[in-house]
Specification:
The protein is mostly helical. Helix content is 52%, strand content 0%. It is elongated.
């Protein structure tokens, strides 16, 4: 079963909306979509995640990683894989580029 196959079979692809569907189509499927779920290693995920730096910014890269991790959690829950290769600590988070200061009462 491939990443694309799981996304199609389990309705993940159909259930995604807006940006999540975009992340799947634009960032995950071109690199990992045709690979079998059990054959993707943590090294593959690390290389894919690193390669995304040239394709998009930190926020979209974090969202794409989070979606891939969610796909693997679904696969684990359905006993299609025994472990997830998504093990990069903090990869599903991005840092704010600027801080927002709330207005004071006087302002």
């Amino acid at each position: 079963l491939t990443v694309l196959g799981l996304a199609d079979v389990d309705g993940i692809k159909a259930g995604l909306r807006g940006q999540s569907y975009c992340f799947l189509e634009r960032f995950i499927l071109p690199s990992l979509g045709s690979k079998r779920l059990r054959e993707i290693t943590s090294d593959d995920v690390t290389e894919w995640h690193h390669a995304l730096r040239t394709k998009t910014g930190d926020t979209y890269r974090a969202h794409a990683y989070s979606l891939l991790r969610a796909i693997y959690r679904t696969a684990q829950a359905e006993d299609k894989v025994t472990a997830s290769p998504c093990r990069i600590r903090g990869a599903g988070q991005s840092k704010r580029k600027s801080s927002t200061e709330p207005a004071t009462l006087a302002e």
